[in-house]
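User: tokens in, sequence out, please.
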């Protein structure tokens, strides 16, 4: 055999070995599911935990939407979950409030360094909190030191007794606890802080916070599926019934109730929540400087790290790591049986929202299992098409 023929044979054998290795690798590593199939699997995995109903929507950079549902909207009738069902926005509305505050800051109508007492003199009197030392930035970032003491229910009996109670913002602030003397002012989630922010918006603009949100965010973005609920105990249709698990065999229908902080109580859909988050991160709602301020973060507490591993909090916005590298932005909401997680990439081009109509709040284990499953759905959706996707 001549040297030329030997070289050709070696090349041929090398190519054959390479092709065989590629085929073996393909056989050993099954093809990843498509993003649509992964979304379907993730919604079913959440339902498998015992969550009655799940709906999820993902919007890709090209605008294409993927939707998946699982479970039932009504445990009595078995009615299917609507992909366009309404749910209570709950704490995701904090991002709406923060956006309005930062818009007002950009317009020179207030400063993040302004104190509570500057805008609401005497509002914190009798609570043990010093309103002259608490700034708007601290309220936005949950570093004010104000401890929550808002009304709530932990048993079915408390739910039935309290579900239609109505409180004024001033009454809610009066319940706020001050930190222990000498304790450091560290990060601590405070709903009361956002009650104060809504009051500051009204004092600054002369309009209720919900009206400013509608005028400045909902209407310009065409978010006609996001509606202020006020003191209404019902939701627009269609919607899944909301259930709260208080213990074994005690899943209670808690759909009928008035939000404690009704001033910023909104109902929304996965479509509108996606569109809001995408517009915000794409820079359509805030000037560059204010959006950068919103994204200046501090670590959340060790307790909340259980729910948001590696999480950091900005001004009404949460930063969380992605398994494929980088981070995403979100703000989940949970109230009255509805638990919603969401996420949007830093450029605002890919987003995901998953809403669950049952809160398994009877044990920490159940709460964490639900949180982890929903977080996995968001992570898979935002990492789709990127290298190192699990």
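Assistant: Sequence out:
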């Amino acid at each position: 055999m001549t040297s030329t023929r030997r070289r050709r044979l070696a090349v041929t054998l090398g190519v054959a070995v390479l092709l065989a290795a590629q085929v073996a690798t393909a056989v050993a590593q099954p093809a990843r599911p498509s993003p649509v199939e992964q979304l379907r699997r993730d919604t079913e995995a959440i339902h498998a935990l015992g969550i009655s109903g799940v709906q999820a929507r993902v919007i890709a950079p090209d605008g294409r939407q993927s939707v998946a549902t699982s479970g039932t909207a009504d445990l009595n009738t078995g009615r299917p979950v609507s992909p366009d069902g309404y749910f209570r926005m709950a704490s995701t509305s904090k991002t709406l409030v923060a956006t309005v505050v930062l818009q007002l800051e950009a317009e020179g109508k207030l400063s993040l360094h302004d104190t509570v007492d500057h805008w609401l003199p005497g509002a914190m009197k009798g609570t043990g909190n010093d309103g002259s030392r608490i700034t708007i930035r601290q309220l936005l970032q949950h570093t004010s030191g104000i401890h929550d003491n808002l009304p709530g229910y932990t048993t079915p009996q408390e739910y039935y007794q309290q579900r239609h109670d109505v409180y004024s913002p001033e009454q809610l602030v009066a319940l706020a606890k001050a930190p222990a003397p000498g304790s450091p002012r560290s990060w601590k989630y405070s709903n009361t802080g956002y009650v104060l922010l809504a009051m500051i918006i009204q004092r600054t603009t002369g309009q209720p916070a919900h009206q400013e949100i509608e005028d400045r965010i909902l209407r310009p973005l065409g978010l006609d599926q996001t509606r202020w609920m006020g003191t209404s105990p019902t939701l627009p249709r269609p919607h899944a019934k909301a259930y709260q698990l208080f213990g074994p065999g005690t899943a209670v229908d808690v759909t009928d109730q008035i939000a404690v902080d009704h001033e910023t109580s909104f109902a929304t859909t996965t479509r509108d929540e996606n569109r809001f988050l995408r517009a915000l991160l794409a820079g359509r709602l805030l000037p560059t400087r204010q959006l950068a301020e919103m994204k200046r973060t501090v670590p959340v507490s060790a307790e909340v790290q259980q729910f948001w591993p590696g999480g950091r909090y900005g001004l009404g916005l949460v930063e969380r790591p992605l398994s494929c590298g980088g981070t995403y932005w979100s703000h989940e909401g949970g109230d009255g049986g509805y638990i919603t997680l969401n996420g949007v990439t830093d450029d605002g081009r890919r987003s995901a929202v998953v809403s669950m109509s049952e809160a398994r709040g009877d044990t920490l284990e159940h709460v964490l299992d639900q949180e982890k499953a929903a977080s996995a759905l968001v992570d898979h959706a935002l990492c789709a098409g990127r290298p190192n996707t699990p």
